[in-house]
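Interim report, section 4.2 (structural modelling).
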Amino acid sequence: MVLASKIKSGICAWLCVMVVMLGLGENRAWGFFAQPQPAPGVYESTTQEPIRDFYDASQYDASDYAVAAKTGAPVKNLTEQAADLVPLNGGRNRVTLRSPSQQMEVDLAGKTHGGVPTPHTKVSPLNPRAPNQPAFNTKNSPVEPATQQDIRTVRRYLERQN
Amino acid sequence: MDKDFTVGQANELIKAGRIYDLHNCFDFDYLTILEDGDLRLAFKPNASHGEGYSPLLLCAEGVDHFAVSPNFGPTTAYHLEEIGYKSCDDEDDNWLLSQRQATVADDLFFRFNDGHYVRFRSQSASLIETPPTPDSPP
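Predicted structure of the assembly:
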């Protein structure tokens, strides 16, 4: 009886761990708030909306889902998906997203930096001690390949702007 | 500093509504300090990503503050990381001021790879498109 109870508790704990791990799997940009960039150099906004994971069945998300293969829709790689977003961004290669704690710069197209081809991202933490706010420590922030979630986040942001 | 351009996102200079993405579409060409102390910073369109751009020359005149990172030399290929502003007396370049945060008294700051930088303040600064060279992309 006691043994059965222990086994049952162990299975429950294991399931809880798995649920948490699956939830964290691809949400690298979970902390970001997309905000309007109406004009160069003006990025602050009072209208901030948390980014949530979602799926809207557009071709951009096809690579994430097995159903794409069944529909026969062309599956675009991340480079192609990112390049498709440049016209939505007014022809600009970069999208800058900010949250209260960090900034994410996404280069959709353009040169390779730090050995990382585009699309790539650079996430910089807020420097709360800087006299001018917001200020982000961009100097040593690494360039990393953009993920499907990053591209999805940018696409959602741009679609809201247009 | 009286300029005919602004800094957009940290990768851009903007003049007359045209956006010059120096980070993604241009290569740093050279830095020259003229005999009278004026400064020239040149960028050329990247061979793969600079289509439609002409070479750019940033001309700063009446320079009253100028600094470059140690060992910044002409023989190294530098990659522009970002553009911003910095107060003249602030040596902490971990963070930069944006166009909106900057004042006319601040340095214009060009950050390159490996911590290298060029910063200056001048009476005026202008951004000029120069004629394409034979090796410029179409």
